[in-house]
Amino acid sequence: MSSDAVASGGSASGGRRNRRSGHKLPVKQLLGVVGIIGFLGTWELIPRLGIIDERYLPPASEVISALALDFGLTAFWVSVGETMKAWFLGLIIAVALAVLLGFIIGSSSFLRKATNSTVEFLRPIPSVALIPLAVLLFGVKIESSLMLITYAAFWQVLIQVLYGVADVDMVANNTAKTYGLGWMARIRYVVFPTALPYLMTGVRLAATVALVLAITAELVIGSPGLGREIALAQSGGAISGMYALVLATGLIGVLINVLMRFIEKKTLSWHSSVRSEVIV
C-alpha cells in the first residue's frame, strides 16, 4: 500500500474519529441540560400539586429567586469566602501530610506492614465523631473546621498514594539502584511519576470530602461560613433562603469538581489515560 493511501486512510479515520467525538460532546451536554430541567420541573410541581407542603419544600422558582437575591448580598459572599478558606486550608494541610507520610510509609515494606492495622483502624472513624473534641480544643473558631476537614481528606489522599507507590515497577526501581540513584532521586524519577495519577485521584476525592466537612462543621459547630447561615435560616423560618444556600453549596461543589478535573487533566496530560480520553 502506498504512503499516500496510508495517509489518506489515516486522515479519513482521524476525521471520522473527530466527527464522532464532535457529536458526543453536544449530546452529552444536551442530556445534562435536559436532566437539570427535568429535576427543576419536578421540584416545582411537587409543592405546587400539594404532594409536599410549600412550607417545607418551596417551589424551585422561589428558591432560585432567593439565591439570585443572595448573589447581591455582601454577607453571602463573606460566608462563601469563609467556607472556601476553611476548605482550601484544610485540603492543603491534608494533602501535604498525606503525600509526605504516603511516600515514606509506601517506600518501606516494614513501615507498610507496621502501620497497616493502624490505618485500617483510624480510616473508618467518621470525622463528625471528632466534633466534640474539636469544640473542646478550639471552640467555634475555624480551627475546629480545619481539624475535621484535614482528618477526612487526609485518608483519601494517603490511601491513593500508598497504592501508587506500591504500583511502582520493581524492574525500573532496581535499574535506578543499579545506576546509583539515591533514595530521593528514585522517589523523584521513578516513584513519583508512577504515583502521580493515584495522587491526583486522591486529591480530587479529598476536595469533595473537604467541602462536605467544611459545611458540616459550620452547620453543627457554628463556625463562620455557609453552613452556619443555613442553620440560621432554618431556625429563623426562612425556608426558601435555607434551600437557596443549600443550592449554593451544590453549585460550589460542581465548580470544585470541574476545577479539580481540569487540574488533573493538565497535570497528567502526558499519561496514557488522559491522552486516550482526548483522542477517543
Tally of individual helices: 11
- Give the mean pLDDT: 84
Low-confidence stretches: 1-23
Count of DSSP E strands? 0
Cα gyration radius (Å): 24 Å
Order of helices and strands: HHHHHHHHHHH
Largest sheet: none
* Shape verdict: elongated
Percent range for β-strand residues:
under 5%
- Measure the end-to-end span: 26 Å
Q: What level of helicity do the residues show?
A: over 70%
Please identify the structural class as seen in this structure. mainly alpha
Describe the structure.
The protein has helices at 3-48, 60-71, 74-106, 109-122, 131-138, 142-166, 170-178, 183-220, 226-235, 239-267, 272-279. Helix 5 (131-138) packs across helix 6 (142-166). The protein is elongated and about 75 Å long. It contains 11 helices and no strands.
List the helices and strands and how they pair.
Layout: H1 3-48, H2 60-71, H3 74-106, H4 109-122, H5 131-138, H6 142-166, H7 170-178, H8 183-220, H9 226-235, H10 239-267, H11 272-279
Helix pairs in contact: 2-10, 3-6, 3-8, 5-6, 6-8, 8-9, 8-10, 9-10
